[in-house]
Amino acid sequence: MPEPDDVPKLRLGGMALRNGLLVHGPTHWAAAVRRGDGTIEAASGRKPRLKGVDKVAGVRGVVRLGEAMLVIPLVKRALPAAKLPFQDAKVLGTMVAAAAGGRVMRGTMRSGLGTESAIAMVSLLPSLVALRGGDLAEYHGVEHKAIAAYETDAADASDAAKEHDRCGSHLMAPLLASNLAGAALLRRTLQRPGPAAQMAVGIASLGIAVEVFVWSERHASSTAARILRKPGHELQRLLGTREPSEAQLEVGRAALTEILRVEAPA
Predict the structure, then answer these.
(1) Where are the chain's structural domains?
(2) pLDDT tier for residue 7 given thresholds of 50, 70 and 90
(3) Per the confidence metrics, is the pTM higher than 0.90?
(4) Closest CA to 161 of 153, 151, 149, 172
(5) For the chain, is the Cβ count within 10 Å smaller at the N or the C terminus?
């Protein structure tokens, strides 16, 4: 959908669904899915928003991610045909096993950097299983291509790269590093950290990772930003995304058209 030259580009994000795409705009969300009968269905709505935290470093990122999670049930209510990323028995089973395995490892293995690293790796298994099955990796590629085509005014999303610099995969390296550092600090401070302390470290690590993510975007041309983004880019290239089909790109175009419609100035 073309826009006048004097209208600034929207900052868009998204999430791949198993049969479609969810796009986040500044104030609204929009999603499109391919139904079982082959038709495309789209829906949209206003995003929940907590004001007053945009300038609070370390807090704003966690809050925004929480708001993004609150959108998911709204999408499912408006589009019952939508299949969520973890809406799969195998993935759910892996989530339960990973959570149980993490607790066992923390309770039986010697506390240290190696243990925390192993637990972090186990926690990634559900995401890896989700990406290996179905069309999720292809729709992840649709997400990146559709948004990149809009941002660059490309004639068609099929010509855009399937990797994107604002992908959540770029949170992985700073999140892992800050989580390991927080766990090490926690072990030095408390002899036996409880669940509340571990949760606090997890939330703080997420806040730090988001701030690193934002810094990397603002300083995209710097060497440090390129180094920080390298792990996430490789994760996208090798595992997280696959080239989508034309039918899948059609769903992405429908989601993009809908978000531009609802975000259009009144």
Answers:
(1) 1-84+245-266
(2) low
(3) no
(4) 149
(5) C
